[in-house]
Amino acid sequence: MLSRAQFPTAKSAILDLTGTREGFAEARDFTHRTLDDWELEHCTDDAVAVVTELAANAVLHALPHADTCDVRVRLTLRRTHLMCAVTDRSDDVPVYPAAVDPFLEHGRGLRIVEALSEHWGWTKRTPVGKTVWAMLPTRDPV
To answer: If DSSP states are collapsed to H, E and C, what string results for the chain?
Structure first.
């Protein structure tokens, strides 16, 4: 089995990935389903893009540091925001490039996350790893 989805409460949903292409598709489906359940369809496109970028970064940067690439996606519904968080086992700090060459294949992920979210950042995990998160507004645009 590639992953395990859990819906422990109405305000939090978790998906464990193994870091494969199928896992990315599953992360997108998980985000779609969760936001549909929470009636946040107007946030879906941005949330899917953010989750995909964060999960891709986690797999890309965590895999060289571990035999397996365990990645956890957590969506948390707060009063005015949706938090999209991805946890991996790498201690490497997320790299936000100072400038982006339009011809580079990689390096735009955190810029996309920044553009789509109101806030983003990362938190070190103990004893190992980090969580990179982004806060998206949940208010429905009129």
So the answer is: CCCEEEEEECCEEEEEECCCHHHHHHHHHHHHHHHHHCCCHHHHHHHHHHHHHHHHHHHHHHHHHCCCCCEEEEEEECCCEEEEEEEECCCCCCCCCCCCCCCCCCCCHHHHHHHHCCEEEEEECCCCCEEEEEEEECCCCC
On the CB side of 139, how many CA atoms lie within 13 Å of its CA? 4
Location of structure tokens 């949940």: 138
- pLDDT tens digits for 46-99? 999 999 999 988 887 766 555 556 889 999 999 899 999 999 988 888 876 666
pTM of the predicted structure, to 2 decimals: 0.83
Contacts 24+ apart (CB under 8 A), 121-126: 122/93, 122/94, 124/91, 125/87
Residue 58, phi-psi category: left (phi > 0), alpha (psi -120 to 50), beta (remainder): alpha
- How far apart are the two ends of the chain, measured CA to CA in Å? 41
